[in-house]
Amino acid sequence: MRTLCLASFRSCQRVYWLSVHTVLEVIRQRFFWVVLGMILALFMSSALLQFIDLSDQNIKFIADFGVGMIQLLGTLLVVVLSVQLFSSGFETGTIWTLLSKPMLAWEYVVAKFCAIQLLMLVCLTLMSGTLAWQLYLHAGAADELQYLAIVGYGLLQWLKFSIISSLALMLAALFRQTLLAIMLTLLCVLISHLRIVVWGPSSWEFNEGASWMRAISQCVPDNRLFQCSTAAFLEPGEFPSLNYLMLIVYALTYCALYLSVASWGFKKRQLNSLA
Amino acid sequence: MSEIAVSIDSVTKDFSAGLRLRKVRALDGLDLKVHSGQIYGLLGPNGSGKSTLIKLMAGLFQASSGHIRIFDQRAGSLKNRTRIGYMPDQPNYERFLSGCELLKFYARMHGLPAKYAQMRMEKVLNLVDLQSVKHRKIGRYSKGMLQRLGLAQAMIHEPDLLLLDEPISGMDPIAHEAMLKILSELRDAGKTIIISSHRLDLMPRFCDRFALMYRGRLLAEHFANRWLAQTDDRVTITGLDTDQRAKVAQLVAGLEGACWLDGNEAQPNLQDWFLQTVSARDQL
Predict the structure, then answer these.
(1) What pLDDT digit, counting tens, does each position of B212-245 carry?
(2) Which of A200, A250, B42, B69 is the most exposed place for a label (fewest CB within 10 A)?
(3) pLDDT at A105 over 60
(4) What is the ipTM score, two decimals?
């Protein structure tokens, strides 16, 4: 029992140090700051919208614009970051030294995942904060805004991005080519938004083809579960009554599944890759 | 006889290559034993399987068949990795870190306590003579510095076995002499070192034992002292100046059945042996 506890503690320590190492890797790259700067600049550009007269729809328009940006740029950022961080060790050759250390395959995968989650939390905080600020500037009075709803929305997106990140890590572990892994992840994200096509229409008659498609569609999460109307930011009592506990369990299940496959794929790739 | 540090029994390693996943055999039924406290050299042309063998011992690859045991434990196990220090053939380290940060990171990955890690870091940095540049970013290190940093990270946790893949490639003569001196000191401290290199001239002088690998097989194995002593009917005279050498050469020329070999000629030619063994193998 004591040996098991000690081994678990050592594993956690290694995951922690490797996560810190990964975060350092990202924040010491100029590329990350350039991307973050561009994202914030895009958000700030919504200030220009005040010159467009949309009458009472102005704030709604800014909220929709901000939410759209969070979803689009957040998805692109998390996919590229996940695949790039996972594959960079193989591309630069630094992985060989690291793997000769007493470290397990799953520790490497989980450490990368944790580091990405931390970075995405920072990015989402910045993006949601900028959105709230822009809304405050346009709303004129702070009490009209539902800050809690914006924070809640940010956390929902963080959960969604954690699933996308684990999916990207899995595909990066299974496929050697970085570009292929990025494209496949984006395709899966698209499919997860289109699950309504196979689940939605009641006009669909039950047949074998539909059953297969529905079964396959379970391999990707339903990203629509993490959406909420922007009306929640502007009007009291509009925040959707989602079952947050269920969403957390839903996200954790998908993450655990994807990360397990990623660990298996990584170990297989590590032990059989060409020297 | 000292204990066996590394035992390799009938190890084969196949890789899948290309779109058709064609099998490429990197190691073919290899047997090898390395005793602890030795420096063991692996010689061989490119593609002979030296790096693959070292990676198998480090637990980076899994053998397709056969067994590798390091200190009587399966290669690649977590416990085993704490006793191994591995230096890759390409000195690729995280360019965004300084030398000092890299060593700290690897010390932490080995679970060394902070104070001990700091002490070890200072020690290995002194040993490889990188103390003055320890805060410099690795991206600004020269090739020789990177090689020395590679040795430092391999030694940070005081391993019993060092696996060094081409540690002196790309080094200037002064740097590689310094590297060999460090490795000799480690051997004297009881560490086992397995080293792969293309430097045929250095192997007998520096290793206790060396093997020639070719196309994934072990062609020949030699004790370095026996290799050097195969000239046992030779008399070696050192410390002569040019005039004295000329006089001795003249004297020897007058003796029946004797000849005088000067300088490098006097060394047994490992390159000739290497080429002859390899071409003999090709003719089979």
Answers:
(1) 888 888 887 877 666 655 554 566 666 677 777 7
(2) A200
(3) yes
(4) 0.81
Question: Which residues in chain B have Cβ-Cβ distances shorter than 8 Å to A6?
Answer: none
pLDDT digits (tens, 9 = 90+) for B82-140: 999 999 988 889 888 999 999 999 999 999 999 999 999 999 999 888 989 999 999 99
Average pLDDT of the segment spanning A150-155: 85
What is the residue-wise DSSP string for B57-122?
HHTSS--SEEEEEETTEETT-HHHHTTEEEE-SS----TTSBHHHHHHHHHHHTT--HHHHHHHHH
Interface test with A, best of B108, B140, B151 (most A CBs within 10 A): B108
Assess if residue A2 is contained within a domain. Answer: no
User: In which residue are the tokens 């995968």 written?
Assistant: A109
B151 and B164 within one domain = no
Size (chain B), residues: 284
Do B5 and B72 sit in the same domain of this protein?
A: yes
Q: Which range of residues forms the domain containing residue B135? A: 90-158
User: What per-residue confidence (pLDDT) applies to A160?
Assistant: 92
B274 is a domain residue:
no
Distance from CA of A62 to the nearest CA of B (A): 39
Task: Kindly report the average pLDDT of chain A as a whole number.
Answer: 82
In a domain, residue B62? The reply is: yes
Owning domain of residue A106: 9-272
C-alpha distances in Å from residue A143, one per residue of A58, A230, A239: 17, 16, 15
Helix (H) or strand (E) holding B164: strand B161-165
Beta pairing class for B65-70 and B4-17: antiparallel
Check whether residue B131 and residue B169 sit in a common domain. no
Q: Which of B11, B164, B12, B145 is nearest to B84 (CA)?
A: B164
- A1 assigned to some structural domain: no
Enumerate chain B positions whose Cβ falls within 8 A of a Cβ in A.
15-17, 24, 26, 51-52, 55, 58-62, 78-79, 81-82, 84-88, 90, 92-97, 105-106, 108-111, 150, 153, 163
Together in a domain, B44 and B30: yes
Q: According to the model, what pLDDT value does residue A275 have? A: 38
List of residues 6+ apart from A130 with CB closer than 8 A: A40, A43, A44, A66
Please state the pTM of the whole predicted model. Answer: 0.82
- B76 and B187 together in one domain: yes
